[in-house]
Amino acid sequence: MPLPEDQISTESSDPLNGRRPVAYREEAFLQSPESRPLRILSEYLWPLAHFQEERIQDTIVFFGSARIEESGPLGRYYRDARELARMVTQWAATISESTGNSAPSRRFVVCSGGGPGIMEAANRGASDAGGKTVGLNIGLPFEQRPNPYITPELSFEFHYFFMRKFWFAYLAKALVVFPGGFGTLDEMCEILTLAQTRKLESKILILLYGSEFWDEILNFNALVKHGMIAESDLSLFRFADTPDAALQLLKEGLTRYYLEPERALRQPFEEAPEIARTRTS
Known about the structure:
The chain has 281 residues and is of the alpha/beta class. It has helices spanning 27-30, 36-53, 75-97, 118-128, 161-170, 182-196, 211-217, 220-225, 243-259; strands at residues 59-63, 109-112, 133-138, 155-158, 172-177, 205-209, 238-240.
C-alpha cells in the first residue's frame, strides 16, 4: 500500500543505500523534455489556485505597448490607461461589496501582461484605487520585468506564451487595447478571432483605445472590402478616446451581459473561477 504523500521520503540522493529523491524533487527530470507536459500543467494549476484563493471571478484585460513611457511622445496613453484602470477598479469594488457576502468574489479585476509601459499603467491605476491587480508576466530577453504595482499574490511568471494567453482570455469579460506593436496585435487578433468564430460562450467586450492610432495602423474597412472579414465583424469591437468614454462603454456592456439578475453564477465560486467555456460545436 503506497505511503501517504506527507510520509514520502524527501531525502536527497544517497549512493550508500541506493535511494534517490522522489521524481517531483528531481530538478534535472523536471527540466527535461519528458517533463514538458508537467511544466505546462503547472502554468495552469498554479494561477488557478491563486485565483481561487483570492476569489478572482473575472478580469478586465489591458493590452498595450511595453515601450510607451509616461513622459514619452505617447505618454498620454500611459496616463489614460492608468486613469481608466483606477476608475474601473473603483467601480468594480462597489459591485463586489454589493453582494452582501462575508467574503465576496472580486469582479472585473484589472489584469495586464505584467511588464512596463501600458501594462504598468494599468496595474498602477488599479493600485491607486486600492484594488487587487493581476500581472501575467513572461520572461523575455529584453523589456519584460514585473512592474512594482502588481498585487504580489497575483503576480505570475510564464514560460509558455500559449498558457499566458489562456489566462488572458479565459477570465476576461472585457479587453481594452491601447496602442502597441507585434505583441499587442497578436494578442488582440487572437481574442478577435475567438469572438468572431464564437469559440467562447462568454461575451468579451473589446475596446480599441485611441481611434486615431488604430485607424492609421489597421484598415478594417479594407478587410471588409476584400472579403477577408464580414461587415458584421466590425461590431466585435468599439473605439474609445477618453477614459470616461471607455468606462461608460465598459459599464454598459458588463452590466448588460454579466450583472443582470439572470446572469448570476449557477455554481458557487469555490469550485473555480468563472472561466469562459469553449464551444464544442
